[in-house]
Amino acid sequence: MSGEEERLHRAFLVRVVEPGDEICGRWLRESGAEEVAGCLAGDGRRLPGVTDARWAGLRARAERADPRRDLATARDSGTRFVCPGDSEWPGQLDDLGDAKPIGLWVRGLPSLRIWALRSVAVVGARACTEYGAHMASTLGAGLAERGWVVVSGGAYGVDGAAHRGALGAGGATVAVLACGVDRPYPRGHTQLINRIAEQGLVIGELPPGDHPTPSRFILRNRVIAALTRGTVVVEAAYRSGALVTARAAQRLGRFTMGVPGPASSGLSAGVHELLRGDAVLVTDAAEVAELVGDMGELAPARRGPVLPRDLLDPAAGRVLAALPAGKALPRQEIARGAGTTEDEAVAKLYELRSLGFVERQGDGWKLTRQAMRSIGTDQGSC
User: Fold this and answer.
1) pLDDT 10s digits, 312-358
2) N or C terminus: which one in the chain shows less Cβ crowding within 10 Å?
3) What is the CATH number of the domain that holds 177?
4) Cα separation of 208 and 104, whole Å?
């Protein structure tokens, strides 16, 4: 059977069978697309594993399927139909086993297979907070600047922010839809999804014109998880489709990451639950790239700001620590508090005076206002 015939049979099947149907996946694995399509088209044979009612439902759908028309409609809208075995097919989708897509409709010029090799999913709440939108946008931009493809679902909230962050950085992004790729959803993101198709890729399992349903959104998430090296969740309540994506990623052996939020936020509760398990806490694109990237893609070392007193040698630091705030002490007490001799204490006091930390007051020494501000800032960060 030629590649075009295989494509025609699979275009027929995606119109008949719902995404992720493992029974149909088993039929395809055991019998091939031509035989499965022939049985569903009504050649007299019956495939096993489904009830009479289910078989009748599939046959009713098959009677209305017109794969040649779907393929023609796709071509007219600049969409191609990519099937397992094609050079553009991402091999990692095969990890889904019998639940892998029958085929994918793809809008956009880049190669899906090449882009998927270095991709990260950024997903989360639709009704996200300003913090969630900011973090998703920043992650999208940061990953794009590092040469990563940002994959998400094109939805409101975190998804849209991640896509916009990548686009704003001039980077690559992929939207995985739960409907026909010629029918942008949500409608309010039509302009965004069309821009993604121009600058990146818009993909989906559903044939042209097909509409989304709640179950299709959930099933779409397995494709996002399988397609990418890892999934980052930015804000998600306990009942969230983003958590479905993260758990699918865990089952597939992909990296799972979460961006922490306030402990009191219900929109971060699902993320925190992930982080109590096997997910890794991340706060920026560098930490994501370190986890999912190649050897050497390390995030910078993190530390607090360097204060002037941090640059003092240990002996001067002990003398400075022996001076209380707002009170002058004689050199004898300072030496005793620093655990050193009077001569050593005096030498360090003059050194500290030259640096603006201490000043003379009669026969004693006291901290300057600059030093007290520095010490107060340092103690406030503890």
Assistant:
1) 889 988 988 888 877 888 988 889 988 999 889 889 888 888 888 88
2) C
3) 3.40.50.450
4) 11
